[in-house]
Every structure is written in C-alpha cells, then in structure tokens.
Amino acid sequence: MTAYKGKYHDELIKNAAYIGTPGKGILAADESTGTIGKRFDSIKVENVEENRRALRELLFTSPGVLQYLSGVILFEETLYQKTAEGKPFVEVLKEGGVLPGIKVDKGVVELAGTNGETTTQGLDGLGARCAKYYEAGARFAKWRAVLKIGPNEPSQLSINENANGLARYAIICQENGLVPIVEPEILVDGPHDINKCADVTERVLAACYKALNDHHVLLEGTLLKPNMVTPGSEAKKASPEVIAEYTVRALQRTTPAAVPAVVFLSGGQSEEEATLNLNAMNQLKGKKPWTLSFSFGRALQASTLKAWSGKKENVKAAQEALLTRAKANSEATLGTYKGDAKLGEGAAESLHVKDYKY
Known about the structure:
This protein is an alpha/beta fold. Helix content is 43%, strand content 14%. The protein has twelve helices and ten strands. Helix 10 links the parallel strand 9 and strand 10 (291-296). Helix 9 (240-254) crosses helix 10. The longest helix has 21 residues, at 194-214. The two termini are 34 Å apart. The model has no long low-confidence stretch (mean pLDDT 96).
C-alpha cells in the first residue's frame, strides 16, 4: 500500500501526534443546532445563536482548562464565532495551544432493507468544505459512523458501508490538510454482554482499517475515536478494570501501531465512569503502542451545563466544574487519576440517550 504523500504529509503527522500528547485530550463541542437545543431544554435555556455562542465562550475561556486539551471539535457555526470582546474562537484556542477541529458529516440516513441500520452522509462537496475549513483555521475533522448491536446487527452491509464511508472521508480530509478522526461508534443500546460488544468492536475496527488501507490513508496522520468495550445499557455493569482489559485487547487485535492516538468517545457513560474507565486502561500493563486519551462531549460538559443554566452569574461555577472534569481526564490519560475529583451536579448520572444522534 502506498499511503498519502501529498503536500500536507508532514503537517498531518505532526498535528495527529500533537493531539495525542499524553496528559491532553479533545473537547467535543460540535453539537449540531438541534442537539444543543435538547441540551438547552434540559436547563431551560432558549436555543438561539447568542446562547450557543455564550456557552462556547464559557467553555473555551475557562481559566486553566486549555492546558488539559490538545483539540476542540467545533460545529461549523462555532468555527466562525467570536467572544463577546470580538476575538475569534479559533484565535482563543490557538493561543491556548489547542488545535481547532470541525465536524464535517451531515448526519445519518437509514440503509434500505436493514433493521434501522444507518450510513453517514456528507461526502458530496467534502473536499471544497475541508479546504474552506482549513483556511478558517481548522486542522482536524470528525465524521461519525453509527452501528448498533442487535440479534442480527450489525449486518455486513452496515459494517462495509460505514467502513468505506469513513475511509473515503479520511483521504479527502488528508488531501486538504485536515487530520481525520475515524469514529465508528457502536451504540451501547441493548441487553448484550461485554463479550458481544468486544466481538462486534473487533469486527468493525478490522473492517475500518482494511478500508483505510485500501483508500491509501496515511495512518500516522489519523486518530481513532471508538466506543469503549462495555456491556449494553440494559445489562449489568462491568468494573473499570474489566472494561479496560476488553477494550485494550480489541485495539491490540485491530488497530495498527502506526496510529498515534486513540481518543475514546464517552457514549453516554456518566462523567465519572468515563474517566475511571480511561484511567484503568492507562494503568493496564501490556502492549499499547498508541496514546489512549479522550474526545468527550457529554462527559466533559454535563455538570458544566447544569452549573451554568444560562445565567451570567453562574459562569464562574460552570467553568470550575469544567476545569474539574478536564483535569480528571488529563490525569486519566496518564493513569494517575485517584477518583478524587469533586463531583459536580450530574457528574455521576448516566448520560445515555437511546439511539443517540447529533
């Protein structure tokens, strides 16, 4: 296989490695307008642009937080927004040593003839959009493929379609200077046990790396954003140590050492659960050629949102809640989290949403 050798080759490798710096991770703040509306509903805040901008300003200007982040994923609207003082968010992030990223997919559509399985859209015009986002300061991108576990799911059609979609997206990003985050999310929904999740995760990741190779993707200039291997949402929970063992084994079997970092999605786990599971993986002995880090949305923002509730007078308390979670997750990437973070309101509650779309 001849991997991508275009003009962005060295830059892609450098940026992917930087995002994977141990002690740092990614804040996923790329909720679409509809999804942020659901979050706002939960705290009784109106879903208008100024409120969306105010929340993102709160996140990006939180004192002390950016030192624990290497990347922030933005929704297109946010890429062009500014602070109340008129400073572009992209500049705020860059000055804090954080690379701006951008969500580039256009959501999922059902695959005909399947039991509600989906494929992700957004390949049309993707090259031109990536070039525009690069010019605006973005240096990495995200595309979410969604698979589900059922009696006969995921089907081979769903696995193949989503793997090829991710690979096509990845090479288009690289041709335009953006490090692609490859995100094949296997939803936690269902009563299945951890062995079933492990089996499906291994099959899905193997298919993804076959497709990425077929499409000549430069693996050193990519990141993987998988689900952790856990029991289903309706099954008995497993300990962080067991989740760590199953997750790392699935990666060892499928994820090439050329990939610099694996940045886990939180998948509806509570803030504290996601941190404890990541910490257990980094404490696990064994071969781990990639940095194991985080790309959390709900699991970094839940207690922050509750503390803020749309009120200016709550900004400081909300920023302190964010700092607590960012520091805890930074420690988890090093395997040094002691489980001693002060739990804000909502930090221990499940963030699971059935058939999650955003």
